[in-house]
Design goal:
Structural class: alpha+beta
Distance between the termini: 49 Å
CATH topology: Chorismate synthase, AroC fold
Bound molecules: ligand EPS
Largest sheet: 5 strands, antiparallel
Number of helices: 13
CATH class: Alpha Beta
Number of strands: 17
CATH architecture: 4-Layer Sandwich
CATH superfamily: Chorismate synthase AroC
Shape: globular
Strand order of the largest sheet: 8-7-9-15-10
Low-confidence stretches: 393-401
Strand content: 15-25%
């Protein structure tokens, strides 16, 4: 089982994580993790914090001479902004009330109020510091390791933004590698140049209005083998595991796989991906199911769309109530982003990588990378042989007709 846990607060000293269950012999490097951390920090609409931070991972354990040992991998990313927060986020008790930057008026849509009620905090900073999407730094760091494993097996993951607020993509290349390339070049990770510009303009307008924006991103995994996940138990279905992972990202409010909600409005004949045989393997006329049937990967690209609500920290604060006086008050204002949908796509990639790598190890598992890749090859070649014999029996059946 591949799993990870994160720790740390947005303005604490550092963020940390443990990734448990990686096999031995996986080639990893801080440079490759840092590249993913850099991608997460980009995107038009990010706030001042991204100018302060240059997220850099440190590997504290589980890797020796560039390869995983099979032990837990321990990761650390220091918060550069800690310099300005060391007194306000002091680990040791302090009597200095005025150094605390107490948060007393919850922001609608944020974890502030539920954190106060649930944990009994009189200072909601205790809630917001951990609920903050800054935590996703570690998800991306952990996901970078899972991504390495998948790459060795020929699985590639990318994301692109399909809408920000009301602005949607209207035309996309048919080739996934071209979509990935164009998204990487866009300031909002959108592969449609025209929509990309309109998204930038919309974000500028929202900033001027002191408002925020959400949007939808798509994450795609190509090259995933058939048979990841299973229908035999509810919590082992791959689509369910992907949905949970995506919904666990801060501010996400919806997930769809393949045509998702649009498929629900169509006839069955319009949305099933018809099956063919090309002499070597099965073919599909389309991929409306997003690469998953019965909770199992079917060999087609895995396509997931995720909806992010607008950020709940508004520079023009909404109505709220002071939790101490119960008097009406404008919500707390904290430095934040106007739009973080492009970054959310990179985080979605990391979460999909973790889920797919976990399912991959379940299916092809072994203690080291060579065994795992040998298992993959053995199963693939068995499928090829099975394909040939199916093809022979189809030929025989048709000659008997
Ligand atoms: C951050 C995500 C957002 C940023 C944060 C850094 O966190 P939140 O979910 O709390 O709004 O606003 O930056 C700050 C907290 C700050 O002080 O600017 C991230 O993705 O790193």
């Amino acid at each position: 089982m591949l799993r990870f846990l994160t720790a740390g607060e947005s303005h604490g000293q550092a963020l940390s994580a443990i990734v448990d269950g990686l096999p031995a012999g996986l080639h990893v490097s801080v440079e490759q993790i840092n590249h993913q951390l850099w991608r997460r920090q980009q995107g038009h609409g990010r706030g001042g914090r991204m100018k302060i931070e240059t997220d850099q991972a440190e590997i504290l354990g589980g890797v020796r001479f560039g390869q995983t040992t099979g032990g837990p991998v321990s990761l650390l990313v220091r918060n550069a902004d800690w310099r300005s927060w060391s007194d306000k986020m002091s680990v040791a008790p302090t009597d200095e009330e005025n150094t605390r930057r107490v948060v007393s008026v919850p922001r609608p849509g944020h974890a502030d109020l539920v954190g106060h009620i649930k944990y009994g905090f009189e200072d909601m900073r205790n809630a917001l510091e951990r609920a903050s999407a800054r935590e996703t730094t570690m998800r991306v760091a952990c996901g970078a390791l899972a991504r390495r494993l998948l790459e060795d097996a020929g699985v590639h993951i990318f994301s692109h933004v399909v809408s920000i607020g009301p602005v949607e993509v209207s035309s996309l290349p048919s080739d996934y590698s071209e979509i990935a390339r164009l998204a990487e070049e866009s300031p909002v990770r959108c592969a449609d140049g025209d929509a990309s510009q309109r998204m930038v303009d919309l974000i500028d307008q929202a900033k001027a209005d002191r408002d925020t924006l959400g949007g939808i991103f798509e994450v795609v995994a190509t090259g995933a083998p058939v048979g990841l996940g299973t229908y035999v138990q509810w919590d082992r279905r791959l689509d369910a595991r992907i949905a949970m992972a995506m919904m666990s990202i801060q501010a996400m409010k919806g997930v769809e796989i393949g045509d998702g909600f649009a498929a629900a409005r169509k006839m069955g004949s319009e949305v099933m991906d018809e099956i063919g045989w090309d002499g070597q393997g099965y073919t599909r006329s389309s991929n409306h199911m997003g690469g998953l049937e019965g909770g199992v990967s079917n060999g087609e690209p895995i396509v997931v769309r995720v909806a992010k609500k607008p950020l709940s920290t508004l520079m023009r604060p909404l109505k709220s109530v002071n939790i101490h006086t119960k008097e009406p008050s404008p919500a707390h204002v904290e430095r934040s982003d106007v739009c973080a949908v492009p970054a959310a796509g990179v985080i979605g990639e990391a979460m999909l990588a973790m889920v797919l790598a976990d399912a991959f190890l379940e299916r092809f598992g072994g203690d080291n990378m060579s065994d795992i890749l040998a298992n993959l090859e053995q199963i693939r070649s068995a499928h090829r042989k099975q394909g040939k014999s199916v093809s022979a029996s189809v030929a025989q059946d048709s000659s008997e007709c």
